[in-house]
Write a structure and sequence with these properties.
CATH topology of the largest domain: Rossmann fold
Main location: Golgi
Largest sheet: 9 strands, mixed
GO molecular function: heparan sulfate N-sulfotransferase activity; hydrolase activity
CATH class of the largest domain: Alpha Beta
Strand content: 15-25%
Distance between the termini: 92 Å
Number of helices: 11
Keywords: Golgi apparatus, Membrane, Transmembrane, Transmembrane helix
Number of domains: 2
Strand order of the largest sheet: 4-3-7-8-16-15-14-11-12
CATH superfamily of the largest domain: Class I glutamine amidotransferase (GATase) domain
Pfam families: HSNSD-CE, HSNSD_N
Helix content: 25-40%
Number of strands: 23
Shape: elongated
Subcellular location: Golgi apparatus
Radius of gyration: 30 Å
Length: about 450
Amino acid sequence: MLSVLRLRRLVRQVPLQTSFIFLFLLCILSVFLSSYFLYAVKQKLEPSLAAGRSADDLYVTPSRPLPFLSGVGGTLSSDGSRTDPVVLVFVESPYSQLGQEIVAILESARFRYRTEISPGKGDMPTLTDGQRGRFVLIVYENILKYVNMDAWNRELLDRYCIEFGVGMIGFFKANEKSLLSAQLKGFPLFLHSNLGLKDCTVNPKSPLLHVTRVFSGPLPGDNWTVFQSNHSTYEPVLLAKTRSAESTGLMHTSVVQDLGLHDGIQRVLFGHNLSFWLHKLVFVDALSFLTAKRLSLSLERFILVDIDDIFVGKEGTRMKVADVKALVETQNELRRSIPDFTFNLGFSGKFFHDHSIPTHLGYAVAPHHSGVYPVHIQLYEAWKRVWDIRVTSTEEYPHLKPARFRRGFIHRGIRVSVCVTKAVLSRWGIFVAIANNTLYGSKLSIFLLCQKSLGY
């Protein structure tokens, strides 16, 4: 007690100016210590040459797929019989772009889902119904919302994933506030952000691949994140080089698969959003792999390329002999991969009557799809009576937009197929159509083109 009184008396005797000087020196010291610590950590976390993989390593690295752990004591199970086929999607807001893109893919594939705002310290949605899990997969629009979750909710979610064998998909898109290098909280995984990448490559040894095929190409944007880890639980799915790297530069992982060896939960983490078209295919494959193919798309596809107005181009733009030969050569080349592939050529009936062009009378398209839906009874009656039409198409049923909600139907014995994608007078028509989710979202893809777009 006496020593405390002496200390108080000593403090009172110190001049105010001396106290301010002491506090100033203490602040300067703390700034130097913080700067030294942050600089040392950044140097430690920057991608090193040893952290990358050479292109040759991609073809020899073995994959180690891990069965899901489920039940008490880690019983192996992958049939998903204890969970409902519903995806739980945690979004940052109901209007976030990435969240809407995730939902669009799930809806296009006819997968059931439920969206929730990512809880910080709020309540977690009910995950079980008795002895049955309500969700077969967890998707986080922002993986940081998961790693920074409060301890109680984090434990509930992790325990659910381990007990019911539920996997997780997460996205990390860097912004101007993101640290250039950091460790993902609670994981032996380092993130290096705001990078420009090039020469994207799919790891052909990844057990994740189903729809996706080996591909190499450019990556848009300068805000990519790559993953680095020495733990055996992490394997690359997509790799790329930094733009500053030489042609022989090492590859860094932009999409990583967590095999579950660290904590018993399998995950797939993306270093960007879904704006890169290849990420959409990998996302679909991740849905399939992490749900043991319960949420999986068939590899079977039906493709129709309909080229309308084949004869009505302006003078100077009409097809010539060389153009027709090129079209036939393209058709034959596509038949090597697609059996019996044939371009559908649309033209005015006047040419049919004047030049005896061979036609398939069972299929017709009304001008602008008029009268197909809403139904015009006289059109259907005339089609059946005059030409015995059996198939047509429309974009309008039940609504024009969004396209993923369109459906087909049968009326008066005529099958009305759904036209999901329409690429007319577009220089890159077919490529735009592919990028807008038709080939991975539905089994039937109809591409409507005009003759004038074929010259590009």
